[in-house]
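dumping this here before i forget
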Amino acid sequence: MQTLQTPSSMQLSVAPSQCQSLKIVALGDSIVYGFGDPERGGWVEQLRRWWMLPNSPGHVLYNLGVRGDRTQQVAQRLEVEFRHRGELRNRVPDLIILSVGVNDSARLGRANGKNYTDFAVFQADIAKLLDLSQQLCPVLFVGMVPVDEAKMPFLDCFYFNHTDQYTYKEVTRLACNQRQIPYLDIFDLWQGRGEAWLRQRMSEDGLHPNTLGYETLLDDVLKWEALAPYHSQPKYQLR
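structure:
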């Protein structure tokens, strides 16, 4: 598949006009999809609705999260998803928001089993995903949420842990930094708020945020300096 080419100046995330209405796609796994939040549909859905408010810039946001996706799978569907979300003839989205990697880090079958995606393979996969994305338009990356280790295994076969999560997210963060892609380090941010705080925001499965967790994630995203140029600043408060 031929990759859409853009001028080199467009390969870095850039600030849009304050009044410009953009087309934005969010690609990733179940955290993008919003699994675990039957009330409000997760952080991407809440951001979509937030950008529909009368005092917002009116961005159109497509949620392209798929449960269980790993980095390789997101990369495989990236360009097709991107090309079909322009709405208007000869238009393509203006921004890609990525959030993926936690599924890659899982250990299979037992706590010391093999990682779902071998670490060396993951390094290549994340580099490919970021490079492909930057060839299409500006990119932002929202990092993974730390799991509740006490609730593992997930579905009786996936063993997630903080040590592996940290290793995989650090590779992602460094790869983003090398490409000047803004990276929001949710893992470190949430870990720093304490175990009790974290448990209050996780679903019973220990992997996905609950409604409060997704509200908190949205709040962190809205306060992120890299996203600030993409929206106006109406008063926002968690309910």
